[in-house]
Queue: 2 jobs
Job 1
Amino acid sequence: MLNLSAEQSSAMADESQLLLELARFVERIAAIARTGLAFKPDGYDAERYEELLKEASRLSAVLSGANEAAANEVRRRWRESVGGGYDGYVTAAVGVGAIVFNRAREVLMMKRPNGRWWYPTGFCDVGISPAENAAKEVREELGLVVRPVRLMAVIDSLKAGSAARHIYSMLFECEVEGGELRPNPLEAMEAAFYPLDALPHPLHGADRKWIAIARQFRFEGRTEPYFDPL
């Protein structure tokens, strides 16, 4: 087993934080450029926004270890996603997560197609509320009918340590009202309920604060939703 010194561990943590900050910088610059092009598609400002997209895509490729062709592809996708005016304003994506407990005080977990375990989650569809989206994800992915009863948290993916797409995820505590646990093979390899202190591994993603939040709400009397501090 590899044993790292305190200095080595600190250096690795610093490097990880630097990469996360660079990923955040790239996404923010790309979003500013795309929003700028939505409102100013022509003229001097547009030229500057195009340059920002070019540089952001280049840095994105460097961070991911990709080549110039990949950078050009990222730039092309960003450019094609530019809308017009208000419709082109780039914002963070919004997702929901369902923290579902059974009567045995266990939480519902699903094994995703990547082989890692997580709670039911997904992006919010247009036209229905966040709570409706959470219930919809559980029903479609796992066959259970649940009722969201409390908003537990709003999690910022970047502050949770993810360098991927910027997402605000709303976690709802949910209760089972019906249905049958039948994982959708397109969404889950398997699913089951587990105690919070004996979750299956490996877990998906970088965030683990949801475990403490779930415990506080379900077993320790917490009522106020968590959000990432300033």
Job 2
Amino acid sequence: MTRRIVVVTAGLSTPSSTRILADQLAAATAGALRTRGEQVQVDVIELRALARPLADNLVTGFPSGELAAAVGLLRQADALIAVTPVFSASYSGLFKTFFDVLEPDLLAGLPVLMAATGGTARHSMVLDHALRPLFNYLKALPVPTGVYAATEDFGNTADGALAGRVERAAAELANAVTAAPIATRPRTLADEFDEPTPFEDLLKA
């Protein structure tokens, strides 16, 4: 069985520190799962490329094109790694918009590793005052360790502090994935269309 990890990153530049942290978390999680004998597939959703489809979705109420494909990846995910830059002491508007347009309960029961990047360490509480309440509201299952990386963390690798947080959070996500497979998550409306009940069976009922 292949475990599918979806990474949502809301960095606005190319490259961005947000994407760098997302890649580190994805690699560490994949490594932790492989040590448990699991096969892993990692899919990355770059929200920067979905800004226009997200705006269209807010108006029409329906995802299309690349956004619909991204939502499809989440439907098949065993775990989510969500990384946002910090804007005005909270997650970015682009990040929030993506999770605003998801159908209800799509993330229910899904293990989530939350992470954020910012200019200074003073924004580190964003994980607990903004991200954790968001994913609790969406009925996801955030792992205990969130990862915040300030600009200085990327330039100071000697003490291994960031690497240690990444490894710890990745191990927690790997444990959550192997303990709570996607089969236990609630079915969504999209699931019903994927496996429709034959009309003959409906008549028999």
